[in-house]
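Pilot study result, target chain (224 residues):
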Amino acid sequence: MTVKNMEKLAVCCINRKGGVGKTTASIIMAQTAAERGMRVLCVDVDDQKNFFDAMDLVRDKYNFKVKPEIKDRLDKGDADLNFDLFVIDCPVALDRVTEAAISFADIVLVPTLGDLFSISNLPVVYDFAVAQGKYPAQVAVIKNSFGTTRTVKDIEQILSNKQYPIAGRWPRNEHIINNIIEGRPWWSGMDARQRQPFLTFYSKVWTAWKRLLADDLETTWKMA
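Predicted structure:
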């Protein structure tokens, strides 16, 4: 596959349904990378600007190893900027803005809750990303707050039948929501066990990127 720059990764988070964890995924990727010393550009192209506001708030209160940069638009020259990670939070729509974000991104993350309303639009989102030139392996689902109900089991079967790559499975965690609202890093007040599913997700995205660079489109999202 052809990539823009092997040393850079651009991720965008999309879904046509709100409240599924799109901005949370953006925050986890951006804050974790900044805390690990990476140069991060956060781009919020959603009209609600929750990603922009949350990152601006925490950046003023917390001393990251490298302070992330934040902007509210995606420009053609952004790929040439000196960043290690680009994180784009998309609007809840499949419009020209989202189209540009997907075209720019190397990996597309699609968070979804374990309910039928959240899952019903996945085929449209997935096909839209592929129509923008993404390989299926570049588009991965995040299972957010999936429980053990019969509905969730049915949804798990749908995801398996569709063979959507899975970027992560998150338990419900109120700490993250409270931390975001109050301007703290997403991991504040969480022990190692509570942080682990989200850090595993973060690591899995980077592992998938390395495999994509090696033209591995078969085992991209499988755990090592």
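One observation from the pilot: The two ends are 21 Å apart (CA to CA). A full batch analysis is planned for the follow-on phase.
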